[in-house]
Design brief:
single chain, about 375 residues, alpha+beta, nine-stranded antiparallel sheet, two-stranded antiparallel ribbon, 16 helices, 13 strands
């Protein structure tokens, strides 16, 4: 877009300067303005070995917890189809769902799961610990894997028994709630496996199939997938590098827990996804339901505050203020994966930043882009 040339040049120069300290790894960025992707660039490298491959805006990358947003959208579509209600108790659809206090957990609703207000602790670990390469992830020392199990109060036999999303839901019977249902907030990533289990029971198809047919295909997100094999075999896909030594980390794989953070996408695909959420004009979901997703439900805990003390969580969206403007966003991260998608509705602005290394550069780049557009208006 010619009228944004000056702003976008500033963005490019900033990212190039920041990447001087991150040689050998990469960043993929897209910027949306109203109905269009106005910026679509990659910097650095998606892979180092066996040969260097350049990063671009079509590089397939792990998006980690941004995946949760696709679960929430799936749920809202079922609400609009009158198949479920946000205020329905989970046990209405999953009668085997319970925690240690069945009386309490029988009152947990779909909305409680979506908004992380169900009362669950934040460090359950079950969804991530069932990754097929979990022993490789925790292999730096002979005891690291056992230490991880101990931290989450899990056993090796326990995680090996999990073969389905239903198994994860049933596992929650050992969970003790940390606060009365609906009265607090804890980011419990594991709860989104329960939501996918619910979607599958209601639709009688896998969440992946539902996602493909009802969301990805209508939005032309043809490089977004849950299939880790397809992604690993794609030459234009990222590998992930930890620390100054750029040590390659195990590839993020976890098919059962795909809803919590194991989808793969590109900066361009997520840019199209933000256009949908920004403009609220689509047959996929009504503008009213999109607003419900973006409306704050509960303030987040202090360790999750970034820009302000007003930071809240809705239905798979964080809401906050930055320099006086409302922002709506969700990010993700694990080992050397970093992802962030942010909207500034007042400017019709959407930002996607994906990294294949650890650190906070995704937030710094996003803040810089917002600054550039705010300052150009003053």
């Amino acid at each position: 877009m010619e009228r944004f040339t000056e702003q976008l040049n500033q963005v490019t120069e900033y990212i190039k300067s920041m990447m001087n300290d991150h040689q050998g790894v990469g960043v993929s960025v897209s910027i949306v303005k109203n109905d269009d992707i106005i910026y679509s660039e990659g910097f650095g490298y998606s892979q180092i070995q066996p040969m260097r491959r350049g990063m671009d805006s079509e590089t397939r990358m792990s998006i980690q917890s941004i995946s949760k947003n696709f679960v929430a959208l799936s749920i809202m579509q079922l609400v609009e189809s009158d198949l479920i209600s946000l205020d329905d108790p989970v046990v209405k659809y999953l009668p085997y769902f319970r925690t240690k206090d069945k009386e309490q957990s029988d009152t947990i609703t779909i909305k409680h799961l979506l908004s992380h207000t169900a009362g669950f602790p934040s460090d359950l670990g079950i969804a991530n610990m069932i990754a097929p390469n979990i022993r490789e992830i925790f292999s730096d020392t002979p005891t690291e894997f056992q230490e991880a199990l101990d931290e989450y109060n899990l056993t090796e036999e326990e995680i090996d028994r999990v073969e389905s999303r239903e198994d994860v839901t049933k596992w929650f019977e050992k969970v003790e709630l940390e606060y009365p249902v609906g009265t607090g907030w804890n980011y419990c990533t594991d709860s989104y496996v329960i939501l996918a289990d619910l979607i599958e029971k209601v639709t009688d198809e896998s969440w992946e199939q539902y996602l493909q047919e009802e969301i990805l295909e209508p939005l032309n997100m043809d490089r977004t997938t849950s299939d880790s094999i397809v992604v690993q075999n794609d030459k234009n896909s990222a590998r992930y590098y930890l620390g100054e030594d750029k040590e390659e980390t195990p590839f993020p794989i976890n098919s059962i827990s795909a809803p919590i953070g194991y989808l793969y996408s590109t900066a361009n695909d997520l840019g199209n996804y933000l256009i949908f959420h920004l403009n609220k004009k689509s047959n996929l979901l009504s503008s009213r339901s999109i607003e419900v997703m973006q409306a704050p439900v509960h303030l987040v805990s202090k360790e999750w505050q970034f820009h302000s003390e007003e930071r809240s969580y809705g239905l798979a969206w964080f809401t906050d203020t930055y320099r006086g403007f409302r922002i709506v966003e969700h990010g993700g991260g694990q080992l050397a994966v970093r992802s962030l998608m942010t909207m500034v509705p007042d400017f019709g602005l959407g930002i996607v930043v994906l990294l294949n290394f650890d650190g906070t550069l995704h937030h710094e780049i996003c803040d810089k882009i917002i600054d550039v557009f705010i300052d150009s208006k003053s």
